[in-house]
Here is the input.
Amino acid sequence: MIAEIGVDLDALARNAQALARLASPARLSAVVKANGYGHGLVPAARALAPHAARLCVYELDEAVTLRDAGVRAPILVLGPIVAADLEVAHAAEVAITLWDEHLYARQVASVARRRHRPFTVHAKIDTGVARLGMPYANAPAVLERYTATPEFVVAGAFSHLAAAEELDSNFTHDQLHRFLTATRALPPPVERHIAATAAAMLWPETRLDSVRCGIGLYGIWPSAETEAVMRPRGLMLEPVLAWRTRIVALHELAAGETVGYGRTWTARRPSRIATLPIGYAEGLPRNAGERAQALVRGVRVPLIGRVCMDMAFADVTDVPGAVPGDALTLIGSDGAETITADELGAACDTIGYEIVARLPAHAPRVYSSGAA
Ligand SMILES: *Cc1c(COP(=O)(O)O)cnc(C)c1O
Here is the structure.
């Protein structure tokens, strides 16, 4: 084993239940894009589906993988689908995101006509991210045309928030107002949804009919502020993923000797340096040796030097018993110490989201579940 990613499917399910309770009566849409935020698409989807009204993916390929694995839950594809794949999307019985009213909308309608069944669509409205969605000012007219198009079943309308992680922004209210105004004429039961995890936590008025939660399901707080606000209110999110590797070699260095490419780290004392068998190709950011820590035998040790493509270094001088073969935890607990994906992200100038989403799909994952 070079590295192992442990995924606690029971914790994943409990986080989904906790977020579903928080959002109720709004329904939970469970986001499993980016390989289930690195946790593994199919196992994550299977664990989450019983607790969610639908699954959300980014790409059609992810939806097809889920269908091929026997996942029957409603699926919404959040991202764009190339016209050539619309037949596949229709056959997979997934809902698609629609924002255009020109060529793409005509292509969608023509596939539905050819296949004698309407396409289920969620209309995407841009209220201030400038990423995907029709401009909110045009939305009432476009939505009216969608609703009048027999080839479309408009099941939902949604938008995405730009700054919901902090409470000191009026922009979330501006976006919500734009969205509600743009969708005012939509008849029920069209589902309105705008909140992701952070907004579902910090801005209850954004929960509407459904919340699209990703990161919180995986036990990672979207921001420090969400944790600071929600923990005292009793919202418990359990860590789901643990990332461990093993020490493969040890080197005794004299003071003044250097480690790795670019010689960015110099021993200030006689030091014992561990070689780790993973690098940036396995998802460890190249700058992790600047500030990140790991756990060996329950002790925090600094990662040092420049992370290589497939190897990295840790200073285990202060873990006297360390030997090759010892487990080294990058995310997870060892003894009384815990390192979260957020801590590792912050130490690498990024966020927990990016750390887990970049864990390579080829890395072995070990799933645990009391039900299995
Ligand atoms: C990724 C994504 C989400 C989930 O966001 P989290 O912050 O992980 O909860 C929701 N909606 C859209 C459109 C997304 O792209």
Summary: The chain is about 30% helix and 25% strand. Residues 9-232 form a domain with the TIM Barrel fold (CATH 3.20.20.10). Residues 163 and 169 are 7 Å apart (CA to CA). The mean pLDDT is 97.
